[in-house]
Design brief:
The structure holds two protein chains of two kinds.
Chain A (H helix, E strand, L loop, with lengths): L1 H20 L2 H13 L6 H9 L13 H4 L7 E2 L5 E2 L14 H16 L5 H12 L2
Helix pairs in contact in A: 2-6, 3-6
Chain B lengths: L4 H21 L13 H7 L13 H8 L14 H13 L28 H6 L5 H5 L9 H4 L11
Helix pairs in contact in B: 3-4
Classes of the chains: A mainly alpha, B mainly alpha.
């Protein structure tokens, strides 16, 4: 009886801690850290990546903000008029929880803006930035 | 003279309402193009632009487009093979040449070749002949593919305003 309770309690606390400490976003960050051999990610560098104008990609979209807008907590819009939910996790909590979706859009959007794919370091910085927004 | 305005007005309102309803209900009706209902297609083909109605292009056009997503009008819209196959099936099953499911092929009648743009179909061009140049260049429109800017009901399949 006591053992059952103890097991239930331990199982519950493990699943609780895995969901709060190592969610899919944290898993992604951990993968990027390994791939980048990085000592850490910086929200500040992520913000610079987000707002900077590049000229390697398509002329209509020089920056991430061209579509995602300058306010991370407000909706954005594509050049073809489709609205995009805010990138800030505080506003759109479901964001960055499907790793395949995150990778797909990093690939597309970095090519669109920078004219090349983003490095794992850049992805980790950007993700850290929007997770804190 | 004692004309019963109220009943006439009410009758007229009811009639207009009925006609509007009928128009919307008729899948083959003039301004209605069955919108995408499949969640996968909505997600994958509806995040950069409106998920265009499959009945606006023939099956051969969708097949060609789905085989070339890596170079999709200057964008990389590529998908894994399994997802692409599912989407292709949906688009082909509801394409302009799929009979009733394709809304009778209103936009593509007599079109030859493998058109990739709805906005280059002769019937589409004819319907938009009177739209002035400045309107296309308006900052809220920017591109012909931005149907929703002018047709607020486009996502529901209505192109009547």
């Amino acid at each position: 009886m006591n053992r059952t309770i103890a097991i239930v309690f331990i199982t519950a606390s493990i699943s609780f801690s895995t969901s709060s400490i190592a969610g899919p976003r944290e898993d992604l960050l951990a993968q990027y850290a390994v791939a980048a051999k990085s000592s850490g990610f910086s929200a500040e560098r992520g913000q610079t990546l987000h707002t900077r104008n590049f000229n390697g990609g398509k002329p209509v979209t020089p920056a991430c903000t061209s579509c995602h807008g300058s306010d991370t907590r407000a909706p954005g819009s594509t050049p073809i008029g489709k609205s995009i939910e805010a990138v800030a996790v505080s506003v759109t909590p479901s964001r960055y929880t499907d790793p395949a979706k995150v990778e797909k859009w990093f690939r597309r959007n970095c090519t669109e803006v920078l004219g090349r794919e983003c490095t794992p370091q850049e992805k980790g910085d950007w993700l850290t930035f929007v997770m804190g927004q | 003279m004692n004309i019963p305005y109220r009943p006439i007005t009410l009758g007229l309102i009811a009639l207009v309402f009925y006609v509007l309803l009928l128009e919307r209900a008729m899948a083959g009706g003039g301004h209605f193009y069955t919108p995408v209902t499949d969640p996968l297609v909505k997600e994958e083909c509806g995040s950069c632009h409106l998920a265009f109605a499959p009945s606006m292009l023939p099956a051969r056009s969708w097949q060609h487009m789905m085989g070339n997503l890596k170079t999709h009008f200057g964008d990389d819209a590529s998908l894994d093979a399994d997802t692409a196959a599912k989407i292709t099936r949906y688009l082909v099953d509801n394409a302009a040449d799929a009979g009733e499911r394709g809304d009778g092929g209103k936009l593509t009648r007599g079109v030859a070749g493998v058109p990739q743009r709805i906005t280059e179909l002769p019937k589409w061009v004819r319907e938009h002949r009177e739209v002035p140049d400045w309107e296309w260049r308006h900052k809220d429109v920017r591109t012909k593919a931005n149907c929703v800017a002018c047709h607020v009901g486009a996502a529901q399949g209505n192109y009547d305003e």
